[in-house]
Design goal:
Layout: E1 8-12, E2 19-24, E3 30-35, E4 42-46, E5 51-55, E6 64-69, E7 75-80, E8 84-89, E9 95-101, E10 108-111, E11 117-121, E12 126-131, E13 137-143, E14 148-153, E15 159-164, E16 168-173, E17 179-184, E18 189-194, E19 200-205, E20 209-214, E21 220-226, E22 231-236, E23 242-247, E24 251-256, E25 267-268, E26 273-278, E27 284-289, E28 292-297, E29 308-309, E30 333-337, E31 343-347, H1 358-367, H2 382-392, H3 400-411
Antiparallel strand pairs: 1-31, 2-3, 3-4, 4-5, 6-7, 7-8, 8-9, 10-11, 11-12, 12-13, 14-15, 15-16, 16-17, 18-19, 19-20, 20-21, 22-23, 23-24, 24-25, 26-27, 27-28, 28-29, 30-31
Length: 419
């Protein structure tokens, strides 16, 4: 795989404080973001990163602490920390139903795979379900003995799993409300994910381990995956063959989902990790630590390009807060919301060859410095780039669409004649 520097840029700064929850609609046409601070609004952007509107969930007592699009992308389900939930029309910004009180205080929200159910996990250890279309709360209440940290569904929405401070993950039958299995760690369970076929459950725990469980029997499968720090997140590749874990020991690891064996050396970071996720095609992995974001080859464990570092507030690291850095469904990019109040679009496509002559110059313009130079930034003339780009546009070269699309994002605001 060729190494490259993933293109990134600030796409919006809607809040005076920290950007928290970010969600992308299934069709990729709408991005929703909410603040970690006191702002109670949600900002909607389109795929071209243009502002659509601010929406204001009624009667929310804090900023939204959970965002999830319905599977058709027409509605956004939002919840606040206290447990109020409402449905918002993406087209108009109007409230479709709610707010409805669901459970109580808590951060963990999840929409089911078929988009029919919405789950709220509370600090009190209860898990509640409601119908997305109507807001009707289901009678069944799923109970743990401690704060709930995560909830997940099988693709057929027959089963649900939850992870808790009570050192357990539980597997539930949604239709009957029956608890099928209790899976025990030595300390808090922070994350849980079903495999694509629903036969395995992956758990990540603060006992420094991640484990694979047989959903049918509730018994562990393969070796325990061990870190030297708390495992904050664990993900399964889209094909179900690999596992990605991230921990406070400043490493991410890729493991065999069948055996639990390590597949590549540890992916070493500068500080404790907060998030890790596979791209939709399983080709790449993205990790976020306190210092920035890194893209990796998910088969070799090698970095793809250089780390994207961003300044953060003193004593505050970058934080995706509501979930993993979400990818567009086509895998072309991911959106990163972090504590500097900004959002960034991370381009995860591999640039095709040949690279046009003007493209590195454009990157130099963006960075303010000649590529490979350690000298002070120098002036780069815009006319140099526009002239080279104009001559290259007439060629029928491989990758023309790729480079045109990315350069247009930067050149459009300049309104230069002939661009």
């Amino acid at each position: 795989m060729r190494l490259f520097k993933p293109l990134s840029r600030n796409i919006y700064s809607p809040f005076p404080d920290r950007t928290g929850w970010v969600a992308i609609s299934p069709d990729g046409n709408t991005i929703a973001t909410a603040s970690l601070g006191n702002a109670k609004s949600i900002t909607l952007l389109d795929r071209e990163l243009n502002f659509i509107r601010d929406v204001h969930p009624p009667e929310f007592s804090s900023g939204p602490r959970g965002l999830a699009f319905t599977t058709d992308g027409k509605c956004l389900i939002a919840g606040d920390f206290q447990g109020k939930v409402c449905s918002i029309s993406v087209a108009t910004g109007d409230t479709q139903w709610g707010p409805i009180f669901l459970g109580g205080e808590g951060y963990a929200y999840r929409i089911s795979s078929n988009g029919k159910l919405f789950a709220k996990a509370t600090h009190a250890g209860t898990l509640h379900l409601m119908e997305v279309e109507t807001g009707r709360i289901l009678d069944s209440v799923f109970q743990h003995g401690g704060q709930l940290n995560d909830v997940t569904f099988t693709l057929d929405d027959r089963l649900m799993a939850s992870a808790s401070d009570d050192h357990t993950a539980k597997i539930w039958d949604i239709e009957t409300g029956q608890m099928l299995h209790t899976l025990t760690h030595d300390f808090r369970v922070d994350s849980c994910r079903f495999s694509p076929d629903g036969r395995k459950l992956l758990t990540g725990s603060s006992d420094f381990t991640a484990r694979i469980w047989d959903v049918a029997t509730g018994q562990p499968i393969g070796a325990t995956m061990v870190h030297q720090g708390e495992v904050g997140s664990a993900a399964i590749s889209p094909d179900g063959t690999r596992i990605l874990t991230s921990a406070r020991d400043a490493t991410a690891r890729i493991w065999d989902a069948a055996t639990g064996a390590a597949l590549v050396p540890p992916m070493v970071h500068d500080s404790a990790l907060r998030e890790a996720n596979f791209s939709p095609d399983g080709r790449l992995a993205i990790t976020v630590d306190h210092d920035g974001l890194q893209v990796w080859d998910a088969f070799t464990g090698q970095p793809v390009g250089i780390k994207i570092r961003q300044p953060s507030s003193p004593g505050i690291g970058h934080d995706t807060c509501g979930g993993r850095v979400p990818f567009f469904a086509d895998g072309s990019a991911a959106v990163w919301g972090h504590t500097t109040s900004r959002m960034q679009l991370i381009d995860t496509q591999i640039p095709p060859l040949p690279v046009p002559d003007w493209f590195p110059t454009m990157l130099e313009l963006i960075g303010g410095q000649r590529i490979g130079s350690t000298d002070s930034p120098e002036t780069i003339e815009l006319d140099e780039i526009f002239e080279a780009r104009r001559s290259w546009k007439g060629k029928n070269e491989t990758g023309l669409e790729y480079y045109e699309k990315r350069s247009s994002r930067w050149f459009a605001p300049l309104k230069h004649d002939g661009s």
